[in-house]
């Protein structure tokens, strides 16, 4: 019995993901995917517009998994601790799935088609959930939550990228986990200090953070 387009789409995405995980995005071709699922190249092009479209479908699965990695397990009730945990979880996800993370953020599509709504919705959900926790951690600081999230995300992303390339040691002896935690603590302290320069504006740094975290291996 011939497979339906939905079955072929699911199989193609699974195979494409496996190629990325095993060999990197450069190893992914439509022909290799077609051979692996036992169909013609033309059939793949009947399901996906092109290789970029297939990669966007793979990226959607990565966004779903990243969201689960960040939010499926309960976060601490204390807002600052929750934001610090999110940074560690993001780093840990990238360390656990380096080639998928790289594909998600560094692959450049050749097509000028706009991203499909279902893909943009996944990005929006991820950003909105992070913003909600950032808003709680920044409560009363007077900081622009969206701008603050942009800065924090970009900064943690940069630490992650250096860690995955093995280049973090060029700029610091700290582990990626410790550096990401220091970043969040320092940023929040700065945001509060702008409103209240006294001791009340400081963010305490609890013991047991940083190098001993699950993401500390990303050094």
Assigned CATH architecture of the largest domain: Orthogonal Bundle
Task: Determine the N-to-C terminus distance.
Answer: 50 Å
Specify the structural class.
Answer: mainly alpha
Q: Helical residue percent? A: 55-70%
Characterize the overall form. Answer: elongated
Number of strands: 0
* Fraction in beta strands: under 5%
Instruction: Provide the CATH superfamily of the largest domain.
Output: Tetracycline Repressor, domain 2
Put simply, the count of helices is 10
Domain tally: 2
Pfam family, one: TetR_C_33
InterPro entries: Homeodomain-like_sf, HTH-type_TetR-like_transc_reg, HTH_TetR, MT1864/Rv1816-like_C, Tet_transcr_reg_TetR-rel_C_sf
GO molecular function, one term: transcription cis-regulatory region binding
Protein name: HTH tetR-type domain-containing protein
Q: What is the structure about, briefly put?
A:
The protein has 219 residues and is mainly alpha-helical.
């Amino acid at each position: 019995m011939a497979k339906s387009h939905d079955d072929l789409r699911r199989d193609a995405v699974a195979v494409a993901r496996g190629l990325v995980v095993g060999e990197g995005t450069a190893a992914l071709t439509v022909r290799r995917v077609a051979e692996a699922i036992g169909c013609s190249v033309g059939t793949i092009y009947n399901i996906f517009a092109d290789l970029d479209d297939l990669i966007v479908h793979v990226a959607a699965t990565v966004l779903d998994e990243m969201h689960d990695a960040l939010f499926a397990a309960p976060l601490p009730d204390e807002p600052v601790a929750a934001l610090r945990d999110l940074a560690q979880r993001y780093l840990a996800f990238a360390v656990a799935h380096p080639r998928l993370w790289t594909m998600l953020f560094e692959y450049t599509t050749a097509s000028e088609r706009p991203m499909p709504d279902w893909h943009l919705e996944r990005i929006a959900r991820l950003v909105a959930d992070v913003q909600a926790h950032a808003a709680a951690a920044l409560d009363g600081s007077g900081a622009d939550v969206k701008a603050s999230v942009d800065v924090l995300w970009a900064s943690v992303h940069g630490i992650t990228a250096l860690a995955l390339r093995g280049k973090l040691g060029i700029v610091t002896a700290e582990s990626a986990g410790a550096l990401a935690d220091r970043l969040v603590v320092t940023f929040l302290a700065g945001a509060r200090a702008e409103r209240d320069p006294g001791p009340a504006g400081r963010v305490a740094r609890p013991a047991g953070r940083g190098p001993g975290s699950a993401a500390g291996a990303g050094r």
